[in-house]
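So, can you check what follows?
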Amino acid sequence: MNPLIFASFRSRIFPKLSAGSRRLISHSQPSRGYGKRLSPLLLVGGVALLSGTLFVSRSIVHLDAGITQSDVEFQADPATKIEFPTTLVIPSKSSLPKFSLVGLGVRTVSFLGVKVYSIALYADLNNPNLQISRSATFEEKIDHIARNTACVIRIIPTRSTSYSHLRDAFMRSLLGRMKLSHSRGTITQEEEETAQDPLRTLKSIFPGTPLAKHTPLDILITAPSKDSAHPRAVIVRDLGSVENDWIAREFILAYFEGDGLSPALKKSVQQGLEDFGN
């Protein structure tokens, strides 16, 4: 496969913590918080983007090219005060979709409710392949989005953690989804077999190094390709990528099964999709 290199986001994409739930920042102001520039994101293979109409191949997509927006609005997680841009724009020489903030929330663990990280779901809601009734249920809407458009999951830890901790959580979640799919009869033998190597690769790309407090980790799930020979990619910033349609879809849906891995995220996304649809 041909390697693709995504250069770093501008530091202003990653805002500072604030007590307010929303604020407006001009890009002409000095960047605050999350000031460290992020290292390149390595992408592998010909990745289908923009509803499968654009293939990025043998090209370098510069994410820190000039940003055309004059202002960016942010929304804070009420539980942690960590802020997320309401629109995620990734400037590049190749056109990429504009990602809208669908919802956000805190992830807690243990009976003490320790806050581990804040998490947000972004999606390309302008994808013409998104054709669903406004009256559809939340489960139908989130499934439709997960299957038909590009998404970004952004995780910002509330305290220093490790990539291996996140890796283990991701793998438990995906293996749990596979077991659940077996019980429901919604996964074919071919899907299960073709997912095995990408699952092993996904597990292997996470290092044993720390992920610093308030450092964003982005996971990009590309849109489906019109060419079935090109599976969707799951791209983990700085670390690498895997290509598999089942993993791409289930990585998103795992956050919304039952009460959700983050009930706060599920509730927020549910509210964000109330008026979504035709």
User: Anything to note?
Assistant: The domain at 75-273 is CATH 3.50.70.10 (Chalcone isomerase). Helices lie at 138-148, 163-184, 189-204, 245-253, 263-272.
